[in-house]
Design goal:
Elements (H helix, E strand, L loop, with lengths): L4 H17 L8 H18 L1
Length: 48
């Protein structure tokens, strides 16, 4: 149980920088998710 809280602390600090590098983390931030969703929808429409 002690291992759970330990990794959670470092993960939270890496979250902010990870969001900028990883689009998957974008959902964590509403501002970042907005542009990501728009691009995804536009690409899907063009592909179709």
């Amino acid at each position: 149980m002690s291992d759970d809280p330990k990794p959670a602390a470092p993960k939270t600090q890496i979250a902010p920088p990870s969001i900028m590098t990883k689009p998957g983390d974008a959902p964590a931030r509403p501002g970042f998710r907005s542009p990501t969703n728009t691009k995804s929808k536009a690409q899907q429409k063009k592909k179709k």
